């Protein structure tokens, strides 16, 4: 019996050998670059590195300075507002669009392409486009006023209280199409017999979606949440293209804070501390998702 068990181990080791060999470069990249770079960033966040990294440890001084900075606190507040509304509206609008597409409408491929097309654009292009659209001189405000409403005002990018919502509009325009496609793929995976049974039982369509379809799409929702949230944490291009962090620092976000301190202010220690806080945020998102997905699957 022991000899049989020992014989099986080498067989399992060499099973799918080509796939394992092909994955070695990806594993090395993940371990050396991602994991190694992350550890390097965390270590140097406890130093007073300026133009060049140096191992001169100062304890938690960089983090004290970080959380005492009004600019960092505003960036966290903006990220929370942007993230909350982006998450809610992306899921709701994306699911509603997917539900409409799932009705086998005419020209489905055309509509799907139109909704997904913004995702193919870079965030810089999207930001510039929406900077023009929201510009009060020749954007929405100008068009509405030319239609006979001279008192109409719509200039979110120039209002410190509303600027983050102007950025949110551009983000939703670009990202909702991807959410729609993910949700549509999940809906197309639902067995048609479930819909037939609900119609026979006289269950309203909205209740079928709410009580049957959405719970069955739990893995799709979780994956979509992770994709959206990881994009929210690192939002940078839209802000730079639309407002460059203005007016003042009203639209500052953590990723821009990191970039400015590392490459403009030449304060690597402060940039590393802010990067570490972003890394912690991503870990808080990824670890529970990985546990729910892979831990639950293993127990099952």
From TrEMBL:
<keyword id="KW-1133">Transmembrane helix</keyword>
<keyword id="KW-1003">Cell membrane</keyword>
<feature type="domain" description="ABC transmembrane type-1">
    <location>
        <begin position="76"/>
        <end position="291"/>
    </location>
</feature>
<protein>
    <submittedName>
        <fullName>ABC transporter permease subunit</fullName>
    </submittedName>
</protein>
<feature type="transmembrane region" description="Helical">
    <location>
        <begin position="79"/>
        <end position="101"/>
    </location>
</feature>
<dbReference type="InterPro" id="IPR051393">
    <property type="entry name" value="ABC_transporter_permease"/>
</dbReference>
<keyword id="KW-0813">Transport</keyword>
<dbReference type="InterPro" id="IPR035906">
    <property type="entry name" value="MetI-like_sf"/>
</dbReference>
<keyword id="KW-0812">Transmembrane</keyword>
<feature type="transmembrane region" description="Helical">
    <location>
        <begin position="113"/>
        <end position="133"/>
    </location>
</feature>
<dbReference type="GO" id="GO:0055085">
    <property type="term" value="P:transmembrane transport"/>
</dbReference>
<feature type="transmembrane region" description="Helical">
    <location>
        <begin position="162"/>
        <end position="187"/>
    </location>
</feature>
<dbReference type="Pfam" id="PF00528">
    <property type="entry name" value="BPD_transp_1"/>
</dbReference>
<feature type="transmembrane region" description="Helical">
    <location>
        <begin position="272"/>
        <end position="292"/>
    </location>
</feature>
<feature type="transmembrane region" description="Helical">
    <location>
        <begin position="208"/>
        <end position="233"/>
    </location>
</feature>
<dbReference type="GO" id="GO:0005886">
    <property type="term" value="C:plasma membrane"/>
</dbReference>
<keyword id="KW-0472">Membrane</keyword>
<feature type="transmembrane region" description="Helical">
    <location>
        <begin position="21"/>
        <end position="46"/>
    </location>
</feature>
<comment type="similarity">
    <text>Belongs to the binding-protein-dependent transport system permease family.</text>
</comment>
<dbReference type="InterPro" id="IPR000515">
    <property type="entry name" value="MetI-like"/>
</dbReference>
